[in-house]
Amino acid sequence: MAAETIIQLxxxxxxxxxxxxxxxxxxxxxxxxxxxxxxxGHNGSGKSTLCKLFNALLLPCEGSVAVDGMxxxxxxxxxxxxxxxxxxxxxxxxxxxxxxxxxxxGFGPENLGVPPAEIRKRVDAALGEVxxxxxxxxxxxxxxxxxxxxxxxxxxxxxxxxxxxxxxxxAMLDPKGRGEVLSTVTRLNRExxxxxVMITQFMEETLGCDRVFVLSDGRLVMEGTPxxxxxxxxxxxxxxxxxxxxxKLRDELLAAGLPVSRDAMDCESLADSLADxxxxxxxxxxxxxxxxxxx
Amino acid sequence: MxxxxxxxxxxxxxxxxxxxxxxxxxxxxxxxxxxxxxxGHTGSGKSTMIQHLNGLLQPTEGRVLVDGLDTRDKKLRxxxxxxxxxxxxxxxxxxxxxxxxxxxxxxxxxxGLDDDDIHERAFExxxxxxxxxERFAAQSPxxxxxxxxxxxxxxxxxxxRPKYLVLDEPMAGLDPRGxxxxxxxxxxxxxxxGTGIVMVSxxxxxxxxxxxxxxxxxxxxxxxxxxxxxxxxxxxELLKMGLDLPQAxxxxxxxxxxxxxxxxxxxxxxxxxxxLIRRWNx
Amino acid sequence: xxxNITLGQFLPGDSCVHRLDPRTKILLMxxxxxxxxxxxxxxxxxxxxxxxxxxxxxxxxxxxYFFSSLKPMRWLLLFMFVINLFATSGxxxxxxxxxxxxxKEALLQAVFFTLRLVLxxxxxxxxxxxxxxxxxxDGLEKLMSPLRKIHFPAHELAMMMTIALRFIPTLMxxxxxxxxxxxxxxxxxESGNLVxxxxxxxxxxxxxxxxxxxxxxxxxxxxxxxxxxxxxxxTRMRELHFHAGDLVASVVLCAVLxxxxxxxxxxx
Lengths: 295, 282, 268
What we know:
The complex is a heterotrimer of chains A (about 300), B (about 280) and C (about 270). Chain A has about 300 residues and is of the alpha/beta class. Chain A has helices at about 45-55, 80-85, 100-105, 105-110, 115-130, 145-155, 175-190, 225-230, 235-240, 245-255, 265-295; strands spanning about 5-15, 25-30, 35-40, 60-65, 70, 85-90, 165, 195-200, 210-215, 220-225. In chain A, strands 6-7-8-3-9-10 form a six-stranded mixed sheet, sandwiched between helices. Chain B is globular, with a radius of gyration of 20 Å. The longest helix of chain B has 18 residues, at about 175-195. Chain B starts with a strand and ends with a helix. Helices cover about 40% and strands about 20% of the residues of chain B. Chain B has about 280 residues and is α/β, with parallel strands linked by helices. With about 270 residues, chain C is mainly alpha-helical. Helices cover about 65% and strands about 5% of the residues of chain C. Chain C is built from ten helices and two strands; from the N terminus they run H-H-H-H-E-E-H-H-H-H-H-H. In chain C, strands 1-2 form a two-stranded antiparallel ribbon. The model of chain C is unreliable at about 1-5 (pLDDT under 50). Classes of the chains: A alpha/beta (about 300), B alpha/beta (about 280), C mainly alpha (about 270). Chains in contact: A-B, A-C, B-C. The interface between A and C is large, with 42 and 31 residues.
């Protein structure tokens, strides 16, 4: 049962009014339902511009964007597209509209004209999904960064979207907040089949993704699994990106002759591989010594 | 002379129902030209503590001496603020002048320096942060890119030629390239100018790499101030505080859990890499 | 560290006054104001005074709030009392000492003025103490909505009030941060004459404004992403409904008003 495409970009070109350079040039990609993908790129690579095309905040200058078959250029589709593609932005403060958490989560459904009793249900459910139920009646501004972002996610969930796009949503958070957001989003993908698109600069965050798209200077330069992408060290370097520290270490160790697994990308898998390598090593060494003794 | 923090305690809104004890009994010295990293969970009092270093906040108890000057003395504050430069988080949000040069000159102007001196310092500072004055001095700060704005804000502090530079998460929100640039700039200030650095950061790897000593704050108290080696040896306690460990340290812990004996602790990836390769070739 | 400011000082609670529809409270506040101004005889002031005590009791607001609501006004009250005492002309002289001349009419005028002010301030504080800012904006929006037929932007105004309320604490924190950052660069906000001090605000105001515009931009994007498209077709999670309590409160207030009118006409 092949997963269907939910977001499709064909030959996208984009230029901001009054700007001379092209923000995006000939970008084509498709995202399937239920996938969790990452879009990475240096500052100015066009990744933020790209994600705003997903929910019709921006319309392409060339090419087309289709969400669940609907063309974003068609104004009739705009509201429905925005309902289906929920977006969480970078600044936790500048997304919360009202003073009280549960009111804010209800903002989306209110805009959609959902009946009051149903809004109430959705708000409670959404807050439960992001583990913020205890904060329902608290003041928005008093929350931590990670909590604010989770409330923003809940605000999207209350509209019952199919895709959740995070536009560098963890960039302004401390490690704890980042962890909260990432685990919430991963859980939504695994347990609810929510399609997730993460725009990020931090390669570590892409480890759990199905696919990674690499943007550089407005172009899509690479597409593949995290493993495939991290192995393209030269291309990453040219794109002004960094492979995760453990991947770099792995490659250095491999170059020095240690038989670590090419699949190891994080701390645990690298530790497993190293422990195995060292455990099996003495046998090989003894064999060589024996060999040498025989001569 | 060092910065001396003596029995520093700070309570917000003392005496009221909302009184909040942010710091209790901090004792510490920051040496000339030292690179001190400050780590701690969010809410542990890092921001509160560093704001005492230039007199922005006053101790509820205890005192802070900068080069022998007491921060509680109102008359000395201007002098203290020219000795201790402070860069807040997202400093680009404090830019306000018409041109980059004018904004960078704000600090020196407040110090009462004469125009030639101010001009020289502004240009020097801009060059230092990688914003060539010929190109940037006359531009509006609001036309710069995010990374450029941050560097302009940093130049504004450097133009004051402070003896100590206090930075609150200077790399927040930057991409990997930007982070590396700012860090190496800060380190070069220390190594080439002898500027003392106090850097609050959540990135354990950065702190492990550059700090001479690390101060660990936990719920307003000073848990420990020691070399990175000694601080990260307290892995369990740091984790319990909600702090992360440097990636090299984490790997060593994971390897030990899998039965490998590793004689010493590592907190720098480059050192760990060399050690593993040496061990393999042994 | 900015103190936690609750605008209008809302005191959360579950009294019957808290539970009244905000529209009722807003409209009855108007009735209350009329009451305060319609009283002309000294002893009739007892009625609105009793009403005030009654309102405080029903709202289960501690008496200390009566004093704290008046505290910012105390010098003004004293000042106005004295002004009225000496500025009003009258005939029945009560006290004549040196240049001080106090007449009965003037004394009554001063007392009335002060009493009215006290009743007004304390009475309206009951409104703000028992109604959260959101409820107030909701109530105002609902009350204004019939005006939409003449293209009065009731929804937009309410939306603006909601967003403003939401961002006040955030902007105050930001002002604090900016101020500290500029102080770290040697800025001095305390010394100098009026002109100097005004000029010294520029390093705070410019970044604050720039930041405010940026926030507005980002917030607009976030709102559009959540399908905001104006007031058409919007529902509200929290609906306002009139209940029996609203009717009772209205009857009580109107009764007081009528009672005062009657008492005023009783010749004494």
